[in-house]
From TrEMBL:
Protein name stated in the entry: Extracellular tyrosine-protein kinase PKDCC
Reactions catalysed: L-tyrosyl-[protein] + ATP = O-phospho-L-tyrosyl-[protein] + ADP + H(+)
Assigned EC number: 2.7.10.2
Gene: LOC100219136
GO molecular function, one term: ATP binding
Biological classification of the source: Eukaryota, Metazoa, Chordata, Craniata, Vertebrata
Entry's localization field: Golgi apparatus; Secreted
One cellular component term from this protein's GO annotations in UniProt: Golgi apparatus
Main location: Golgi
Start and end residues of each Protein kinase domain: 102-373
Length: 463
C-alpha cells in the first residue's frame, strides 16, 4: 500500500544481499556488493522445517562456543519436535526465490540479536525481513569471548531459527505472522537465515500516551488476549522473557509481539516452594512448587506482571470514563499484586469492554440533550478551532461517544462548546465519533447529518 509506494525502487538493496551481510553494514548501502539472486542452494521454504544438511558447527571453533552451539541446537531440535515439524504441509510460504526478487530494502530497526528491514515483494506486498545482526550486542559479546565471528553469527542464527519455529506453530492475532523463511548454508561456518514476516511499525509509547483512552484500552485488551493464548498455547504455557514495548509492533492498529527468540516454553523446575520465587526489580512473589516439580503458573504470572508494569500502569488509567475507573483500579491492583491469573484478567477486561460498548456505565446521569436543538440535514464546518484532548483528530475536537445524550454531557462540560455533530465514523468498539465545535454559525446542508446546538447558544442574545 502507501508504504510500498513510498519506497524508492532502485535506491534499495537487493534482498539477497541481506543474506550476505553482517547486518548493520546495511546502513552503508552503496558500498555493498549486490549478490546475484538465488545465491546458494538455500531452496524454497522447506516444509519439514529442519535446517539444511551440513548444519553442524565446524570443529575449528573454540570448545566453549562449540558447546554453546550444541546446546542451542539441542534446544531447537526439542522445540521443533514439540512443535511438530510436519505442520507446514500445504502451507505455501515465501522462500529464497521471493527474497531474491524483493526490492526497496531499507532498515527498520534492530535489537541486540537481529536486524529488521522492510522490503517490497515482486507482487507488490511489503514484508519485514529479519536476519542476524552481525554488529549487534549478542554477536559482539560472543566474538569478544571466543574470537570466532562466523561461529558467533551462527549462534545468533539459532535464536532466529527458534523464533521462526515458534512463529510457525503459534498463530494468534497478537503474534506477528510468519510468511516464510530462507536459509543459505553455502558459506562454510555460517548459516544465514532470513525470516519474512508481517510488516508492522514500532510501538511508540509516548505517542500512545496521547491517544484516546479507547485506543489505549484496545492495546491492553489485545495484550491480555495474547497472554491468554500464550498461557494455554499448543506448546504449553509460554513466557516472554524479554517483555518490553520494543518487542511489539503495531499492525493496522493492533498490537503484535514480534520478538519471540527469548520465549520460554519450559516452566522452572523446583524441589520446594523456596525454589519458586518470581523476582522483579520492585517486587517478589513466592510461588508454589507443584507435585511434578514445576513452579506452578510461573510463566503466566511473569507475563502478567510484565504487562502490568510496562503497559497497564501507563495506558489504562488516565482519562478513562469516570464510571469505569473503579473497575480499572481493580484490574491494576489485582494484576500488580498477581491476585488475578490471566483468566480472571481477561474476564475483567471483557466486563469493562461490555460496560463501555453498551453504555451501561452512563446510568444515572441527568438528561442534558433537552438543552439542545437538533437540526436534521445540516452539519457544521470542520475545524472551527475548538480543540480538546485527547481528540481523534488534531484539527478539532473529535471524541468517541455512546449516544447524542452523552455527547450533550460532554459539550456541557466544555467551556467553549456550542454545538456538536454525530459523524458516520465509528471506533473499533462500534461507537460513533462526535465533533464538538465552538460555533454553529456556518451550517452546510448534509442529508445524513444532524447538528445539535446548545439552546443557550441560540437564545443567549446572539441572534
Ligand atoms: N514485523 C516487524 N515490522 C516492523 N518492525 C519490526 C518488525 N519486527 C521487528 N521490528 C523492529 O525491529 C526491532 C528488532 O527486532 P527484534 O525481533 O526485537 O530483534 P532483537 O531480538 O534483536 O531484539 C524491533 O524492536 C522493532 O522495532
Ligand atoms: C492493592 O490494594 C491494596 C489495598 O488497598 C494495597 O495495599 C496494595 O498496595 C495495592 N497494590 C497495588 C499493586 O496497587
Ligand atoms: C483458564 O481458562 C482455560 C481455557 O478456557 C482453561 O483451560 C483453564 O483451566 C482455566 N484456568 C483456570 C485457572 O481457571
Ligand atoms: Mg527485540
Amino acid at each position: 500500500m502507501a508504504a510500498a509506494g513510498r519506497a524508492r525502487r532502485g535506491a534499495g538493496l537487493s534482498a539477497a544481499a541481506l543474506l550476505a551481510l553482517p547486518a548493520l553494514a546495511l546502513l552503508a548501502l552503496p558500498a555493498l556488493p549486490v549478490l546475484p539472486p538465488g545465491r546458494g542452494g538455500g531452496g524454497e521454504a522447506q516444509p519439514g522445517f529442519s535446517p539444511p544438511p551440513g548444519f553442524s558447527p565446524p570443529l575449528l571453533l573454540p570448545p566453549g562456543l562449540r558447546e554453546e552451539l550444541r546446546q542451542r541446537r539441542r534446544d531447537l531440535r526439542r522445540l521443533e519436535a514439540a512443535a511438530g515439524g510436519g505442520e507446514a504441509a500445504g502451507a505455501a510460504g515465501l522462500g529464497c526465490g521471493d527474497l531474491s526478487r524483493a526490492t526497496a530494502v531499507s532498515v527498520l530497526g534492530w535489537g541486540f540479536t537481529k536486524v529488521v528491514a522492510r522490503a517490497v515483494l515482486a507482487g507488490g506486498g511489503s514484508v519485514a525481513l529479519k536476519s542476524v545482526h552481525g554488529a549487534g550486542r549478542e554477536v559482539r559479546r560472543c566474538v569478544q569471548r571466543y574470537g570466532a565471528p562466523a561461529g558467533c553469527r551462527r549462534l545468533a542464527a539459532y535464536k532466529l531459527l527458534k523464533e521462526v519455529t515458534l512463529l510457525r506453530r503459534l498463530q494468534h492475532p497478537g503474534i506477528v505472522k510468519l510468511y516464510g523463511q530462507c536459509y543459505d548454508n553455502s558459506g562454510d561456518a555460517e548459516l544465514r537465515v532470513t525470516a519474512m514476516l508481517e510488516l508492522g511499525s514500532p510501538l511508540e509509547m509516548i505517542q500512545l500516551l496521547q491517544t484516546p483512552w479507547e485506543e489505549r484500552f484496545k492495546i491492553c485488551l489485545s495484550l491480555v488476549k495474547l497472554l491468554f493464548y500464550l498461557a494455554h498455547s499448543p506448546l504449553g504455557s509460554i513466557a516472554l522473557l524479554d517483555f518490553q514495548p520494543r518487542q511489539f509492533v503495531m499492525v493496522d492498529g493492533n498490537l503484535k509481539v514480534t520478538d519471540m527468540d527469548d520465549a520460554s516454553t519450559e516452566e522452572l523446575s523446583c524441589k520446594e516452594d523456596n525454589d519458586c520465587t518470581l523476582d522483579f526489580p520492585t517486587k517478589s512473589f513466592p510461588l508454589k512448587c507443584s507435585v511434578v516439580g514445576k513452579c506452578e503458573g510461573i510463566n503466566e504470572k511473569k507475563n502478567l506482571f510484565n504487562a502490568y508494569r510496562y503497559f497497564f500502569t501507563y495506558l489504562l488509567p488516565h482519562s478513562a470514563p469516570p464510571a469505569l475507573r473503579p473497575l480499572l483500579s481493580d484490574i491494576l491492583n489485582a494484576t500488580g499484586d498477581l491476585r488475578y491469573g490471566i483468566n480472571e484478567t481477561l474476564r475483567a477486561f471483557e466486563k469493562v469492554l461490555h460496560l463501555y460498548k453498551s453504555g451501561l456505565y452512563l446510568q444515572k446521569r441527568p438528561l442534558l440533550l433537552k438543552d439542545y436543538i437538533s437540526l436534521k440535514g445540516f452539519r457544521t464546518v470542520e475545524g472551527e478551532g475548538h480543540k480538546c484532548w485527547p481528540s481523534y483528530s488534531h484539527l478539532g475536537c473529535l471524541l468517541s461517544i455512546h449516544s447524542a445524550e452523552e455527547a450533550a454531557a460532554i459539550c456541557n462540560s466544555q467551556l467553549h462548546c456550542q454545538s456538536f455533530i454525530v459523524t458516520q465514523h465509528r471506533t473499533w468498539t462500534g461507537r460513533p465519533l462526535a465533533s464538538f465545535q465552538s460555533s454553529w454559525t456556518d451550517l452546510i446542508p448534509d442529508t445524513n447529518a444532524v447538528v445539535y446546538i446548545k439552546r443557550s447558544a441560540s437564545s443567549g442574545g446572539r441572534l
